[in-house]
């Protein structure tokens, strides 16, 4: 694979930043188009940043792959409806626009517990987006469902999440008691797994933390 053109949404986030770094370092990637609500501070000859309104998307550039790493929390968003607008509406809108632009393969950063029938609002929204992407005619869809993420959110301009901080502490102390899929995982590990799987994806594949950590 050479001269790949990539679209990424959510490149300013914890996992998204690691995905972007990997794409820019990949010799088989010719162009990266990053979609966001503000201008990126990253400068690279491969990178084009598109400042957009996710509720009114323009036509996207022709591309081969899409990486969806959009995400927030209800606390940061301010309400359930605002959370849904980011984690579901924006993600689905980008996926549909990317499909029109010729994208064949998609990598999605979802969450452990994603289930459209879940009683937990966060998990339900994640599951609903997964279901919608499954129905779009992509050649390959890789869904990463990480457990609690490890990474420095302050470095990407985000507030640290208390649940992730506690999960990291407990993981270090009681990791031997926690099943592999539920242990905290580095954001960079999630990114690496998607970058390895998406270019060769056929059909739908779900990656859990255990498999992403082991590389299998």
Shape: globular
Give me the oligomer status.
single chain
The CATH level-2 architecture is identified as 3-Layer(aba) Sandwich
Ends apart, CA distance between termini: 21 Å
Low-confidence segments, given as residue ranges, are none
Give the full name of the CATH homologous superfamily.
Answer: NAD(P)-binding Rossmann-like Domain
> What is the averaged pLDDT score?
90
H/E element order: EHEEEHHEHEEHEHEH
Tell me the number of strands. 9
CATH topology: Rossmann fold
Instruction: Report the portion of residues in β strands.
Output: 15-25%
Rg of Cα set: 16 Å
| Count of domains | 1
User: Total helix count?
Assistant: 7
Helix-strand category? alpha/beta
Spatial order of the strands in the main sheet?
3-2-1-4-5-6-9
Helix percent reads 25-40%
Describe the structure.
Helix content is 38%, strand content 20%. It has 216 residues and is an alpha/beta fold. The strands form 2 sheets. The protein has a 7-stranded parallel sheet, sandwiched between helices. Strands 7-8 form a two-stranded parallel sheet.
